[in-house]
Amino acid sequence: MTGTSSRDTAPVGGSAARRSDASRSAILAAARERFAADGYERATIRAIARDAHIDPSMVMRYFGNKDGLFAAAVTLDLRMPDLSQVPRTEVGHALVGHFLALWEENEELTAVLRVGITNAAGAERLQGIFRNQVVPVAQRVCPDPEQVQTRAGLCAAQLMGLALTRYVLRLPPVVALGRPEILAWLGPTVQRYLTAPSP
What is the pLDDT of residue 137? Predict the structure, then answer.
């Protein structure tokens, strides 16, 4: 029998799809690490491809260019906590704890922060994250709706300032702080930004 059945050919297509998925995953993982380590400007397609053990042409085939690769590699969900179950007086503490856990476990946040400092695309990504994910949290607890943007911005400044000094610049006194100390210092400050009377 010389014909080939669909059963014979299906694994080939499936295998190709699996290889493609594996290649994309390897590229994205390498890109996240490279963007986090080098920032946007210094990270190159060639270096990312080398880290992923893939030809640079494949990176271009999947993602088009470095902007496309960055956008795919750092799509972030901050997984903001449900504050409806948190007492209003403890929201600041809860937010600092949540962000601290995210920074510790998620290198994509470090990558976005590094890139946001020097690159318009990265800054735009950070602004989108702030607008879509942080502002709604502030909206739920702020006492004055007209101050929501300001209060959320101050919270973001505090939290991103911590991340910048602890994970990017790695200032020794900030790196040396333990989690309880960070919560004790920053929790009340973020709480004040969110719920204290407007000055």
Answer: 85
- 6-73 maps to which CATH number? 1.10.10.60
Does the pLDDT value for residue 91 go beyond 80?
A: yes
**Domain-by-domain residue ranges, the chain?**
6-73, 83-195
- Two tokens, residue 128: 């989108």
Establish how many alpha carbons lie within 13 A of residue 16's alpha carbon, considering only the half-sphere containing its beta carbon. 4
Segments in 43-119 forming alpha helices (H): 45-52, 56-63, 66-73, 91-105, 107-118
Distant-in-sequence contacts of 48-55, Cβ < 8 A, 24+ apart: 52/23, 52/26, 52/27, 53/26, 54/23, 54/26, 54/27
Residue-averaged pLDDT of the chain: 84
How much is the pLDDT for 122?
A: 74
